């Protein structure tokens, strides 16, 4: 009897599995978006056909086929209308799907209106096959309809596309609407087009494989996607899979960035294979270069943006030039907009030269949109012509031809790459003429005092260290200083960036009951969330758990003050919750996580990107120290507090959190461990704390960006290399800065800039805070706009850098 009881669960498991994996779907069967009958499975359970909730919108569903056992439930097919420009079909929870003998499949919305049908005739049953093909079968065994014959953005092994077939990308990964890219299988070859949304107009192809084509085949044995020509020969479209096909799921998708990628996913993940889709092959080889084949439209990344292709992960990134930002962070194809008022044509040349400047960029070009060309001409003349021309947004200069091009907005098909041999100059306002300062200037008041407000500092590693640090906190951390101008607190409905007041229930729902942790800090935990708005906006929610009890008015005023700080290189505060004992801050979500994760990972960031990140952090600190209405000293600048958005723009986080903390809440959080970290030495001396503590921390981070290593690496064998600040100083004194970027060909080819950045960093990490430059000076030196004297040794006593 006992043996039988032990076997009972196993028997139930054996008999229950086939019941879940549908063999044939009988006539009269139906599905609904919610409940147990929401999908039909293939015999293996690998694929499912039915209602699939749309990511970020739990009230809308697709009729789709998906990989049922993959962690992301990747969608391979979804229903669209059957007109000349097929449109996405979305239904609500009240919809239903019926299998009928005459009409085949009939999808009805919540009102009972038929919104999609297969129009099958003589259907006997339906089946979800193990290949991922959903079929309607007649009584004679013939296929009356199949999902493989109406592909959307994906093809699967055994699937064959015939001449005239197309694949259309999604608009973004989470929006299945018709995207901006089309794969068209024609009798003369395979062509990839950029498509204007929503009109559907096709521009010239940006990539093609010509030939007298009859079909595009995904071979299930070799994993090769190939083109069949009318003479019977074959041309490889992708290289195929190395190893066995049976151990992986496979798909090939025209992705939202215009790249046709072949993927595989391990059916049984092991220590050697992660549970994620990996790229097998892709076309075109470089989407940023491929877009240059067309001379109309906005290009891959949209107007005023430029495309950067990362060879290491086969991904492209869209970036904005300095003082530009994306119109829509989630839909970057819409392009970039200037964060300032364009130059007025009413300005005379002298005034224009004072109010605007040109920022140089290398290895970046917009090949079109030029309206004037000069040759021969010098680089200085080129810049001056653009600076005094109100129509000119960008000047491009090519040294080899002594040629200058003036370009006006919008600029298209922007590209960044090693093959670009032109210098690009972007026109932006001088620091004293930005839009944000102009708006706030009439609200400033003089001769106010403020508290220096810092974040958490260090984790004590010993009793002695803790005693010292607590003494610093009690006597040195919060000191009063005078600033020239402090702006008044704006109400939440002012023009600009109004903060939203969230309820606790809203944020609890948005974060799935605070399920996914993004990070932890001294003041609380940060969770990932998604708002239930039209865009499904992703957010980062910080629950403050170490805030002293204060009135609702005090908390709200402080939050509104922080909310006024707005800069491209600061993480934006979207809103807050002040409900009962709950205090939460809602920030914009940073797609690429922290600099700590990206900089010290397995893949080295490109040198140009690292230099761009350094400038971004410097400009963010400059804003906090000198340009925002209330000076803020961060006090905790480190890679973990520098976040990267989808465009790899560096954004400083936690810069205002200390405003919400009392003195006795600023606890030590990072161990010194007997070596220099990111902490300026004056924290341990009986002297006042100034903005120069942030300058020191920036210097350390700048060296880490240059060398792609942490400041302190105790595992390093060579004793002189364990601490980066010391080693960098030694390399510079010996004239061997190249040692710091050994193995980084891109940085070595740009050694002059590397040396300039190293010298700036060495000035920043001077022991004496009065010798460190201001962040204004740092930005000027990094930009090359200011000369840089030789930094003294740490033991020297020189005059402060002017």
Can you give a write-up of this model?
Strand 44 (642-644) and strand 45 form a beta hairpin. Helices cover 20% and strands 30% of the residues. The strands form 12 sheets. It has a 6-stranded mixed beta sheet, with helices on both faces. The protein is built from 15 helices and 45 strands. Residues 1-21, 432-497, 662-675 and 795-802 have low confidence and may be disordered. Among the domains are: 19-150, Bulb-type lectin domain (Agglutinin, subunit A); 346-434, Hepatocyte Growth Factor, CATH 3.50.4.10; 438-468 and 480-588, Phosphorylase Kinase, domain 1, CATH 3.30.200.20; 595-783, Transferase(Phosphotransferase), domain 1 (Orthogonal Bundle), CATH 1.10.510.10. Helix 11 packs antiparallel against helix 14 (751-764) and helix 12 packs across helix 14 (751-764). With 802 residues, the protein is an alpha+beta fold. One of its GO terms (cellular component) is membrane.
